[in-house]
Amino acid sequence: MLGRKGLFVLAGVAGFLGLAAATDAIMSRRQAVEQAGPPKVLDQGWSDSLREQFYYTSQGSQLLPYVFLRALEQPLSDKLFLDPAHIAEMGFLPADGPSQLNPDSLPIGFVKDPRPGGALGPSVGMTCAACHTADIEANGVRIRIDGGAALADYQLFMKRLSRALDNTLADPAKFQRFAARLVAADPKQIRPALEATAAEIRRLEAASWTPVPYGRGRLDAFGHILNAVAADALGEPANFRMPDAPVSYPFLWTTPAQRYVQWNGVAGNPLGRNLGEVLGVFGHTSFANGNPGAFASTALPGNLVALEAWVADLKPPPWPEKELGKVDAAKAKRGAELFKTHCSGCHGGPEYRFTPAADTEGGRQWLAVSMVDIAKVKTDPKMLTNFTGRFAKPGVLGPLVANAPHLSDGQVPAGAVLLAAVTVITENSLRAQGITGDARKQWYGWRFAPGSTAPQSGWLTPASYKAGPLAGVWATGPFLHNGSVPTVYDLLSPEDERPARFYVGAKQLDTQKLGFVSSPDAFTEKEREGLFLFDTNLAGNSNRGHAFPDPSVAKLSPDDRTAIIEYLKILEGPDVRRH
């Protein structure tokens, strides 16, 4: 991810301590739940060993030296950066203790790279689980949602990491404690290496700044990915664009079976999608000497294929009646009828639609998710317009995008640049490992039209948002692609009745409205300071649209909304064994 150079201003001591004091109140409410032991794990089809593999299998992300992160202190404290309370403040999930694959108790989704690295050893980065694992709380119980939407604050994490590194360089006592923890490192290498690491993290933090903060549970993934490839890796600073269209982390169950993935549907095969994702989350790319045959990245395609296979076994989380309360069967039955009338046309279920067997080699069928034209759904368009309206200089990738539309100055759609980069890097990796024929097709998730050697493409036009299946959605708020609606009840309400401002970051589930507790009056003043205030009046944050049924007919009554909510608690997912 390439950022514009600029001054980097350290946070004031008073401001930082104020934030820490505010988060103390939030943390105190959680401590009773978290100190009770590990979370309750729902039956989502994973064994304990598979779950741990998903949490701690590297995808090729390299953020900073592993030993540096373990030795680093918090910016204005002598407590370690990886202290569980500090990790939780930023919305990530601390480990429940050391394990075979995680002997150092890294947070969930933080992973040591399996390669040896340089003089300081392996790097540490993030894997899928960092953003796609969640905990919810209700009635004094903590419940794990594997494949769920994390409430992590990416920008806050980058800010604190950058300040922690800078403060370590500036404070002699802090640096001495840091260096003392690096028992195997050459003392002469520590400061120069730390300076280089701090400069890189400072650059990444600056590149992630936006005038409207992401807050909890959101990231402009495409913005970061396109900057990483089109600006950073290509060495074309003019290709940088502010990543200012954050979207919610999507839940993962059923995604391996879906015909299109990503909120805008542009990814047509899992390997290309996942490799591109790595490049946006601290993966590195080399376009060596402009020779396409030598283009490479730090992504680990074999691990990406394994991660995708594990997610294919992941089921939607079942509603745990013991912890969250019994479902009203009569109300759910009525909700099923309303859902079929008003929701299933786009979202499918309980009778899901699949692609024709003739469309894919071997007769494999994929979940036929609906791509809903922005002109129809009328939700916030910024994510779509940022992608479709973005052009870039192709640099050394020019020959690979020769057939793409060109502007007069030689720029091409940024999506074409990304596709070219991901395709050539993927093919080079497969070729280097001798993976051809059916093995190659398997790595691409069997996404091939009959007789074709090129993987199936993603959604192209018109600009649309994906309406995926809703099984398990009860555990995944806030809602809409940009996280602008706090509860399902609010989403089913008329646009003018939806909250204009609400808080994000609390994990307490509202079992009646389906979403997290978010209204201002639910928290003390101190607690509110430790949460993120979501303002739907700001750019990219609109909560309008998704006004169904059509305004020309009767709107859903409050009883209708609660009936649909009751049904969503028990809605079953599709049978995805067809592929």
UniProtKB/TrEMBL annotation:
Q: Which Pfam families match?
A: RoxA-like_Cyt-c (PF21419)
Task: Cite the entry's keywords alphabetically.
Answer: Heme, Iron, Metal-binding
Q: What is this protein called?
A: Cytochrome c domain-containing protein
Q: What GO terms are given for molecular function?
A: cytochrome-c peroxidase activity; electron transfer activity; heme binding; metal ion binding
Record domain Cytochrome c: where? 330-423
Protein origin, superkingdom: Bacteria
